[in-house]
Design goal:
Order of helices and strands: HHHHHHHHHHHHH
Structural class: mainly alpha
Organism: Loxodonta africana
InterPro entries: DUF5588, TPR-like_helical_dom_sf
Protein name: Chromosome 8 open reading frame 76
Largest sheet: none
Pfam families: DUF5588 (PF17826)
Strand content: under 5%
Distance between the termini: 92 Å
Shape: globular
Number of helices: 13
Number of strands: 0
Length: 371
């Protein structure tokens, strides 16, 4: 046999030649579970083990958080975080998440977001990243920042595209975004109106003082009449049209997210019982009621259902439920989620938006022909 060539099966693991462990005869030793009284960690344990002492302090923080004593919980978590060794990765993550949630409840959102960003950078598997994204979602929801809340949900969906509850939350966020757009637009209009009022009152006061100040006579640089009324009306119409288009797009995205939520719930319905099935059916009914408010044609709803259900097959749902935790580097994890909201919406809603755009263009053409 030539050098460097091996026969198939010519290598064996060392374990093949090891002797098996000797089995003891007789029944196995009985297992005695350790019983703990409620709130046992508040008693003096007198433990010399640093890890156990820190674990007890963490439990105290958890109980304080449950009791909504957020300042007390934050103190416990912070005390533990300072004393944890660098090798205690799991407890470090739990404690930092607790700190961020306490800070959120205490209104210190900037500090909470900083901790969440640090946790995201250190995430090494999909479970870590999922937990961090839920944390960021909670912080942004508390801030009532709809845009960032939507981005958090979009990232969660890119990791878990078959989770119906995240799709439902995204639909609700889109619905809430509609009134927010209207409110911001109305605020801009009111600011414009107030500016006009100020200019008008200033103009009247100048007219009253014409005899006193020659430089305010008509024709002088300081005296000018606002002739932008027609331009203002045109701008207002354009703004109103743009606002209407944005609201319509938001409704389309909300409807699409609701449709996918319902499709996913319908697929898992046969596997559920008891309160899980009850929640499923109740949510489907709520979605049905909200869908009626969109007033979309049946043809459009069928297209939305077709597009949002293209990838929904039972095998994929099973893979999502029983998925293994993917341990990868932070760079690979970052690549597994969407980079921007535009990327997410292009992936999921582009076909639907193109459909509605074509209908709108056709409608505008018909109006022009009739005119």
């Amino acid at each position: 046999m030539e050098n460097g060539c091996w026969l198939f099966g010519g290598e064996f693991e060392d374990s093949v030649f090891e002797e098996g462990r000797e089995r003891r005869a007789g029944p196995p030793a009985s297992y005695c579970a350790k019983c703990c009284e409620p709130q046992w960690f508040y008693e003096e344990t007198g433990s010399n083990d640093d890890v156990e002492a820190l674990t007890i302090k963490k439990f105290k923080g958890d109980l304080a958080y449950r009791r909504q004593e957020y300042q007390k919980a934050l103190q416990e978590y912070s005390s533990v975080s300072e004393k944890l060794s660098f090798s205690s990765f799991a407890m470090k993550r739990d404690v930092q998440e607790g700190q961020a949630r306490c800070l959120t409840h205490l209104g210190r959102h900037a500090e909470a977001l900083q901790i969440a960003a640090n946790l995201e950078n250190k995430a090494t598997n999909t479970d870590h990243l999922t937990t961090v994204l839920y944390l960021q979602f909670a912080i942004c929801s508390s801030l009532q920042n709809l845009e960032k809340t939507i981005v958090c949900l979009q990232k969660l969906i890119s990791l878990h595209p078959f989770n119906p509850w995240n799709w439902g939350k995204l639909a609700e966020a889109y619905l809430n975004l509609g009134p927010a757009l209207s409110a911001s637009s109305q605020k801009r209009n009111s600011c414009t109106s107030s500016d006009k009022t100020i200019k008008s009152s200033s103009l009247h006061s100048e007219k009253d003082c014409l005899l006193c100040f020659p430089e305010t006579l008509p024709g002088s640089p300081r005296f000018s009449v606002d002739t932008s009324g027609s331009d203002s009306q045109q701008n207002e119409k354009a703004l109103k049209k743009k606002r209407g288009a944005l609201l319509r797009q938001t409704q389309i995205k909300a409807c699409a997210a609701f449709v996918r939520t319902r499709l996913l719930l319908q697929l898992t319905q046969s596997q559920q019982t008891s309160f899980a099935l009850e929640r499923n059916l109740k949510t489907q009914q709520e979605i049905e009621d909200k869908m009626k408010g969109f007033c979309f044609k049946e043809e459009s709803l069928l297209l939305i259902s077709e597009v949002m259900g293209e990838d929904i097959v039972p095998e994929k749902i099973k893979d999502e439920v029983h998925t293994e935790v993917r341990c990868v580097g932070s760079a690979a994890l970052t690549a597994s989620v969407i980079a921007s909201s535009e990327e997410f919406e292009d992936k999921w809603f582009k076909k639907i938006k193109d459909h509605f755009c074509s209908i709108e263009n056709q409608f505008q053409t018909e109006i022009q022909i009739l005119a």
